[in-house]
Recover the amino acids of this structure.
């Protein structure tokens, strides 16, 4: 079932200036629980999901207008635009990944393979050349659940598994140069739920194990690389959080190239706040969603 707003709750689409940490309200609604903004490659539009559907808003004004997904079953908040902005890749509630032309031409194309009963695909990234998708493959079998990082050709083809272990991984996304995949994982902790940020090279690069990037008491999810590959925006949950729930107070943080961390925003959110790539093409702004309770009407 899609998430719904609580009584007295609003969804606020916010634009954050990463240098000044100023936050501007782009859109507020008490009827749609919007999630997971993508910024279009031309910088003109924001893509969000709500109630299993996909919507577009202009960065300055206009929308939300529904995007025709061609009859795909309800989608979740894992959707990413191709580098040319012509295609949106979505994770459907049927467990598969689809490609949809944003101009409405043609039928949706299923990209993912049948990887066995109980296997589901959760998309998070597209390579800078548009040829590969990064996703989390979740396998449920024998009462256990494994979540690993996989790659998949966007045109269709054989899957490539990057991690293969018991540690829960999520949020896999390419670096702008295509050499690395960034993700969050619990592999560095014996405490359930204590995720940190990692990266590892893609198969074409020299092989090495996952490299840890954050080392703190908070629970860190969804690393998103700035267009120049220097900064990482991510969602940081309170210590002790398990998974990535909604309706908790989270920090949206920025990891700088020198290892320093800055807080950009503190919002009520978590799930839906910044699940997918959300940088503007200039690298100056990110888009996030907050879910305040008992917010005054606007």
């Amino acid at each position: 079932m899609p998430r719904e707003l609580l009584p007295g709750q609003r969804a606020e689409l916010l634009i954050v200036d990463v240098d000044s940490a100023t936050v501007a309200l782009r859109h507020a609604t008490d009827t749609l629980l919007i999630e997971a903004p993508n910024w279009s490659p031309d910088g003109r539009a924001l893509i969000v999901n709500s109630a299993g559907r996909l919507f577009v808003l202009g960065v300055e004004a206009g929308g939300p207008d529904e995007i025709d997904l061609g009859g795909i079953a309800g989608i979740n908040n894992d959707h990413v635009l191709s580098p040319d902005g012509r295609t949106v890749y979505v994770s459907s509630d049927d467990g598969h990944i689809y490609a949809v032309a944003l101009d409405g031409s043609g039928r949706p194309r299923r990209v993912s393979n049948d990887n066995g009963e109980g296997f589901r695909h959760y998309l998070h990234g597209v390579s800078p050349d548009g040829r590969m998708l990064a996703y989390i493959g979740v396998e449920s079998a024998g009462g256990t659940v494994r979540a690993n990082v996989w790659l998949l050709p966007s045109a269709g083809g054989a899957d490539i598994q990057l991690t293969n272990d018991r540690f829960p991984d999520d949020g896999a996304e390419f670096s702008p140069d295509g050499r690395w995949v960034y993700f969050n994982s619990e592999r560095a902790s014996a405490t359930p739920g204590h995720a940190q940020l990692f990266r590892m090279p893609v198969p074409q690069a020299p092989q090495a194990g996952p490299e840890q990037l954050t080392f703190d008491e908070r629970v860190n999810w969804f690393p998103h690389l700035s267009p120049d590959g220097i900064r990482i925006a991510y969602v940081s949950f309170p210590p002790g959080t398990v998974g990535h729930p909604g309706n908790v107070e989270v920090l949206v943080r920025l990891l700088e190239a020198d290892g320093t961390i800055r807080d950009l925003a503190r919002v009520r959110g978590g799930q839906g706040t910044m699940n997918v790539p959300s940088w503007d093409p200039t690298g100056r702004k990110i888009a996030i969603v907050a879910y305040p309770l008992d917010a005054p009407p606007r």
About this structure: The mean pLDDT is 94. The longest strand covers residues 132-141. The chain has no helices and 23 strands.
